[in-house]
Design goal:
The chain is mostly helical and about 300 residues long. The protein has helices at about 20-50, 55-85, 90-125, 125-130, 135-160, 180, 190-225, 230-235, 240-260, 265-290, 290-304, and strands at about 10, 85-90, 170.
């Protein structure tokens, strides 16, 4: 690493909410417990129930694994920050937190993309579904998603690691995100920001475009179904995934694409809190509450 003047950073968290810290701590602790339990239950039910041994539910377990990693990476330190009116991290730990966070976000983008392709084949081309979407395809795609995320982001992480960090060492955020880290550096970060933009096109814009195109075909096919019952049944198979996509990509675009330096800092924090804390919380409920297969599997496991 280049010569540095700082070896640790101080995360401010939510300084404007100091009077509500106790309530915020309890609220976040509850979210943490429910998120862990919800995603673990999803994984357990899918693994234990033979009814759910299908590609779509396999991908749902991968989303749950990523949500568990995201929550574990962000929330314990956030609880410490809220409880102590801020928190100190080593610079190395800060960079690692960002790398794990970015890997989870990137992998989830890829998984949500293949889930849209899965729904596209199931609804628009069901006769070819079993020939294409099989265990080998699912395994290869998941491994490829993890490896691609790991190596693409490793390039960016190494470049950030080689910057000179000369302070100030205060981050007005609740976790180590990309732009707050760059603001600590006294090196020229323009090339890294260009690189990050290019990577963003690969890992966010391209997957989102594929999802949009897939759903254009899906919606067209559903509208061509004559019976109302058939339409409702077809739409119910992809409604959960579509809801997660809207929440996930909507908040990412709000924070990283639409946002600017002129954006209110507290608004940016609120949006970041939404996709790092709230999204992993609600995903298990979105996938399970309105899903008859999940409900049936859960009831079957209860009686056994």
């Amino acid at each position: 690493m280049n010569e540095q003047n700082i070896s640790y950073v101080f995360l401010l968290g939510f300084p404007n909410l100091l009077t509500l810290n106790s309530l915020l701590f309890l609220f976040l602790l509850l979210i943490y417990c429910v998120t862990i339990c919800g995603n673990v239950i999803i994984i357990f039910i899918v693994l234990a129930s033979k009814v759910l041994h299908s590609p779509m539910y396999f991908f749902i377990t991968q989303v749950s694994v990523l949500d568990l990693l995201m929550t574990t990476n962000i929330l314990p330190n956030l609880l410490h920050i809220v409880l102590h009116d801020g928190g100190t991290m080593s610079l190395a730990a800060c960079l690692i937190q960002f790398y794990v966070f970015a890997n989870c976000e990137t992998s989830e983008c890829f998984i949500l993309t293949v889930m849209s392709y899965d729904r596209y084949l199931a609804i628009c081309n069901p006769l070819r579904y079993n020939a294409i979407i099989n265990k080998a395809f699912c395994g290869k795609y998941v491994i490829a998603s993890w490896l691609l995320s790991f190596f693409v982001l490793l390039v960016n992480e190494i470049d950030i690691y080689n910057l000179s960090f000369c302070g100030p060492n205060v981050i007005d955020h609740f976790f180590c995100d990309f732009l707050p880290i760059l603001e600590l550096s006294c090196s020229d970060t323009s090339l890294i920001q260009i690189q990050a933009t290019l990577f963003g096109i690969i890992i966010v814009i391209c997957p989102f475009t594929i999802i949009i195109v897939s759903y254009m075909y899906i919606i067209t096919t559903i509208l061509s179904i004559r019976s109302i019952t058939g339409r409702q049944k077809a739409f119910s198979t992809c409604s959960s995934h579509l809801t997660v996509v809207c929440i996930y990509f909507g908040t990412i675009f709000s924070v990283y694409v639409v946002s600017s330096k002129g954006q209110l800092l507290e608004a940016s924090k609120a949006l970041s809190l939404f996709y790092t804390v709230v999204t992993p919380l609600v995903n298990p409920f979105i996938y399970s509450l309105r899903n008859k297969d999940f409900k049936g599997a859960f009831e079957s496991l209860k009686h056994n």
